C-alpha cells in the first residue's frame, strides 16, 4: 500500500500550481467580480495539456502519460487558486470530452476531439432540466427521427460550458421513444453550437463560480443529422450515469483544492493577525480550528486519490462507485465547513471580497449539489450496503 503520489505526478502538480498562481492568481478576483470567462486562459490550459489527460495520443491527448489521477491533481491545483477554473476543466473533460471518447463513433471522435483536447473548444452535457435533476430519468426533452435528422424540442438548465464563445457542441439526453413496458427510451444527441433552434439563454446570476459559464438551454425544432446520436439509441441515461461516477471524484478533487487553500490562508493569517498582544494563532480557539482544517484536508485527499486510483486500476464498477460517492460526500461537505471556518478565522475581513476566503465561501456550496447531491450520494452509499433505500 502506497499513500504517496508518484514523483512524476508531484512534478506535474508543481507545474499546474505554478500555472495557476501565475495565470489565474493575479486576475481571478477581478474576473469573478465581472463574471468574465477568459477564453484565452482556457486555450492556455489546453496548451499545457490539461484537457487531454485522459485522452489517447491520436486525438492530441497524453495517452499513457496521463491518467484520471493526473486529471484530479490538475483540478485540485486549479481549484486551490480558483474554483471556477477547476470546474471548467472538470466539466470540459468529464462532461464534454469523456462521453464522446467513451461512446462516440470513430467519425464523431475525429470530428470533435482534437479541438476539445487542445482546449481550442469546449463541450457541455445537458442532462438536468427544470423538472428533472436528481431524478434525471424524468427528462421531458424529446428527439424525433424525421427522415435523416433528429428534431430536438425541450429545455435544459444549469449546463456548464454551454454558452461560451468557444463552445462547439452540447450533448443532451432526450426521450426518443417509449419502451414496451411504458418507460421512456432516453438517448444522447450531440447538438452543435449554432444549430438553428438551439439557444443558450442568458447566463445565470449565481451565488458562486462566477467565472464558470452556466446557461439554461432551449431547443425548438433543432435539427441535427441522424449520425449525431451518441452511443446506442436508448442508452443515453445509462451512459450518462457512468460518466457521473468519474465526475464525483473530480468534484471531490476540486473540494480538496479548496480545503488546501483554506489551510494555507488561515495559517498565514493566524501568524500575522494579532489580538490581545499576540498572533491569533497562539489562541487555542483559533489554532484548533485550523488543526481541524488540516485533518479534513488529509482525510479528503486520501479518499479522493484512493477513488481515482481505483478508476485508473480498472477496479470493478461497484467498488469504484462506492469509493466515488464516499469521497464526494466527505470532501465536498468538508470543503463547505472549511470555508466557513476560514471566514471565521479572518473575522470581519473574511466577509470582504478583498480576501479570497469570501469568494471561496460563496464557491463552496455548489460542491454539495453538482454531480449528484449529498443526499443522492448517501442514498447510493446506503444501497451499496444492501439497504433498500428509495
Ligand atoms: C452551477 C451548476 C452547474 C451545473 N452543471 C450541470 C451540467 O453541466 N450538466 C447537467 O446536466 N447538470 C448540471 N447541473 C445540475 C446539477 O447536477 C443539479 O442541480 C443537481 O443534480 C440537483 O438537481 P436539482 O437542482 O434539480 O435538485 P433536486 O433534484 O430537485 O433536489 C432538491 C433537493 O431534494 C433532494 N432530493 C432529491 N431526490 C432525493 C432523494 N431521492 N432522496 C433524498 N433527497 C433527495 C436533493 O438532494 C436536494 O437537496 C449544474 C448545477 C449547477 C448549480
Ligands present: flavin-adenine dinucleotide
Say what the CATH topology of the largest domain is: Butyryl-CoA Dehydrogenase, subunit A, domain 3
CATH architecture annotation of the largest domain: Up-down Bundle
Question: How does the helix and strand content classify structurally?
Answer: alpha+beta
What is the CATH domain class of the largest domain? Mainly Alpha
Report the CATH superfamily of the largest domain: Butyryl-CoA Dehydrogenase, subunit A, domain 3
Multimer state? single chain
Instruction: Give the overall average pLDDT.
Output: 97
- State the distance separating the first and last CA atoms: 36 Å
- State the shape: globular
| Beta strand % | 15-25%
Tell me the total number of β-strands.
10
Number of helices, where a helix is a run of at least 4 consecutive DSSP H or I residues: 11
Summarize the helices and strands and which ones pair or pack:
Elements: H1 7-24, H2 28-34, H3 39-47, H4 68-81, H5 83-103, H6 106-117, E1 122-126, E2 142-146, E3 149-160, E4 167-178, E5 184-192, E6 198-200, E7 214-225, E8 229-230, H7 236-272, E9 274-275, E10 278-279, H8 284-312, H9 317-345, H10 356-364, H11 374-384
Parallel strand pairs: 1-4
Antiparallel strand pairs: 2-3, 3-7, 4-5, 5-8, 6-7, 9-10
The structure holds flavin-adenine dinucleotide.
